[in-house]
């Protein structure tokens, strides 16, 4: 939706929870350890419907060095999660996103103002730092009818025609099977029963 940010309300709620087993495995931490859960909801001021919703998880042990990162009144944070992690010495090098789809439950359909038959797109994002640790996990959802996914694939340039021609010429320098047979026969006539130095049997 092309909705100006000034026409929306953002609600952020932070809570420290015990890491459940499934999230602990992805975040490479022990189950039950403190995990910062951050819920974000953006709503249309006119309709009250959700415009965006996500839930992020950060191991408390990674971010407790900066107490401001545990305080939801600091939101919205300029630079968002990438800069928040940078303040505690964590630099991201890779983002992995997995997109799926499912039908919404009744509560979700009402919260988003979805039409019958519409589905929710689910996006799980893993943020990986320069030490190859998963340092943040985020789950977001979007109604498919108002969402566009854009994927960009950078392709390596192909070789220039002149380079391709040179490679073809270098391959053509190798004699064909018929040419090798002719060479072997000639060597056989010259060397009689001696083995041909070019691969013939001298027969």
Fold blueprint:
Layout: E1 8-18, H1 21-26, E2 34-44, E3 50-59, H2 60-63, H3 80-86, E4 92-102, H4 106-112, E5 120-129, E6 134-143, H5 161-172, H6 177-191
Antiparallel strand pairs: 1-2, 2-3, 3-6, 4-5, 5-6
If you had to describe this structure to a student in words, what would you say it looks like?
The chain has 203 residues and is α+β, with helices and mostly antiparallel strands. Helix content is 25%, strand content 31%. The protein contains six helices and six strands. The chain has helices at residues 21-26, 60-63, 80-86, 106-112, 161-172, 177-191, and strands spanning 8-18, 34-44, 50-59, 92-102, 120-129, 134-143. A six-stranded antiparallel sheet has the order 1-2-3-6-5-4. The radius of gyration is 31 Å and the shape is globular.
Question: How would you write the strand order of the largest sheet?
Answer: 1-2-3-6-5-4
Order of helices and strands: EHEEHHEHEEHH
Number of strands: 6
**What structural category characterises the helix and strand content?**
alpha+beta
Number of DSSP helical runs? 6
Sheet with the most strands, sense and barrel status: 6 strands, antiparallel
* Overall mean confidence score, pLDDT: 84
Task: Provide the helix percentage.
Answer: 25-40%
Question: Ends: how far apart?
Answer: 82 Å
Indicate the overall shape.
globular
Beta-strand fraction estimate: 25-35%
Q: Roughly how many Å is the radius of gyration?
A: 31 Å
**pLDDT below 50 for ≥5 consecutive residues: which ranges?**
176-203
């Amino acid at each position: 939706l092309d909705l100006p940010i000034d026409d929306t309300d953002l609600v952020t709620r932070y809570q420290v929870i015990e890491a459940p087993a499934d999230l602990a495995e992805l975040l490479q931490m022990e189950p039950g350890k403190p995990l910062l859960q951050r819920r974000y909801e953006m709503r249309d001021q006119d309709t009250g419907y959700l415009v965006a919703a996500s839930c992020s998880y950060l191991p408390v042990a990674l971010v407790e060095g900066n107490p401001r990162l545990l305080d939801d009144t600091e939101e919205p944070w300029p630079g968002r999660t990438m800069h928040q992690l940078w303040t505690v010495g964590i630099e991201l090098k890779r983002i992995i996103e997995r997109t799926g789809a499912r039908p919404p439950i009744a509560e979700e359909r009402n919260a988003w103002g979805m039409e019958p038959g519409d589905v929710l797109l689910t996006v799980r994002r893993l943020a990986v730092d320069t030490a190859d640790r998963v340092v943040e996990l985020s789950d977001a959802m979007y109604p498919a009818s108002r969402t566009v996914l854009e994927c960009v694939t950078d392709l390596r340039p192909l070789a220039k025609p002149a380079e391709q021609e040179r490679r073809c010429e270098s391959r053509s320098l190798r004699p064909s099977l018929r040419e090798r047979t002719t060479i072997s026969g000639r060597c056989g006539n010259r060397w009689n029963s001696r083995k041909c130095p070019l691969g013939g049997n001298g027969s």
